[in-house]
Design brief:
The protein has 96 residues and is an all-alpha fold. It has 4 helices and no strands.
Length: 96
């Protein structure tokens, strides 16, 4: 951290991060990318909706929708990174 509470990142520290790149020539990767974008847009709209929920029942319903969309995003990310069932189990156990 540097003055003012900002972080400074150097390329050498970021090179080792496992960032998945999308193959622009692969139809499957294009579809996954489009689906992730669609789901993230949906998630953003749901968060706005939950913030303006008028009743606890409406809030609960929207929170359930958020949970479903979040799981769909997770599933797509697992596919993009080609994770095994064992790796997915570890991730889900550690993040729950």
């Amino acid at each position: 951290m540097i003055r003012g509470g900002f972080f400074r990142y150097f390329t050498q520290y970021l090179e080792g991060l496992p960032i998945c790149s999308v193959d622009s020539t692969s139809g499957a990767d294009k579809r996954r990318r489009a689906r992730v974008i669609e789901l993230v847009d949906n998630m953003a709209a749901l968060f706005k909706e939950v913030g303006s929920a008028n009743t606890p029942d409406v809030r609960t319903q929207v929170e359930r929708q958020i949970s479903v969309v979040n799981k769909q995003i997770d599933t797509l990310v697992y596919e993009l990174y080609r994770l095994t069932d064992e790796e997915i189990t570890i991730i889900e156990r550690e993040t729950s």
